[in-house]
Amino acid sequence: MPLVCPDGAVVAYAWKRQLAGQAGASAVDRTRLALKALTDQKRRFFPHLDDGLDGQSIESTSKKRCGPQVQMENHQEELSEYKTLSDVLNHLEKEVPNFRVFTYERLDWLKRASSLPSSANVTNMETSNEHNFRSSNKLRLGSLSAVATEKTAVVELLFPSIFKVIVSLHPVGSIDPDSVALFSPDEGGSYIHARGISVCHVFRLIMEHAAMALQYFLGIQAETTLHSLLKWICSYQTLFTRVCSKCGRLLLMDKKSALLLPPVYRPYRQFSSLEISSILPIPSANVGVLILLRLIMLVAF
């Protein structure tokens, strides 16, 4: 049974249309025209069957792409070794400097978020974080019991003076994230959760990218989504200290919001552990500049 093209023509006899009006052509001409017609039809409807020069070009294209793909596959295989929440957080702590991680049950996090003041001073905030950090350290060191680990539903990453990240896990105790949100470190209130929205425009933009990154990592390999997502988010540690790779500026006026914003986009496709090495501790000389930039971001709100 001959295949039918989308335009209604029959593939096996499509060459007849090109022979119309050429009855006087020789057998060689008819054969050449028929072969050309069939080849064109094959390229149009069956491009994966192309051979010859096109096959060579496809092969060369695949060779060009094999480098990043192989690197990404190796990266995913490396991350697949960390199968528990404790393993993921312990490995992340070794690779990324200057951050703190806290774990909560869902109800405990809702209580904590509601108790946080909307504008807390740094001293009080650091004191409360130290208290919670001691309990979370047990999980990172692997000394927490399996029962307590299975109750972990919310993971909080705090980058002092930069931002904090809330990641929701579903099911509880797994390494499967279902939502993520970013906030300013001094934000507080009942809206601080994995599906909440920050009052700061810059973190709202980053959260949009984070949602797309989450779906991308889920599509690549669901087992390593949490690890990949957290490592990608850690690249925002230089949010207020690294200039844009395109324009070379630290702040630029956003036309839509009419606000000065730092570069908020970090590529997540083919993101690997090699890119984590570019995250360096913030020099003490830049702390004042960082705080000033954060104040500029918050004054508008």
TrEMBL record:
Subcellular compartments: Nucleus
InterPro entries: Mediator_Med27
Keywords from the named record: Nucleus, Transcription, Transcription regulation
Gene Ontology, cellular component aspect: mediator complex
Pfam families according to UniProt: Med27
Signal peptide: none
Matches recorded under PANTHER family: 34 KDA TRANSCRIPTIONAL CO-ACTIVATOR-RELATED (PTHR13130), MEDIATOR OF RNA POLYMERASE II TRANSCRIPTION SUBUNIT 27 (PTHR13130:SF4)
Similarity section: Belongs to the Mediator complex subunit 27 family.
Designated name of the protein: Mediator of RNA polymerase II transcription subunit 27-like
Organism per entry: Juglans regia
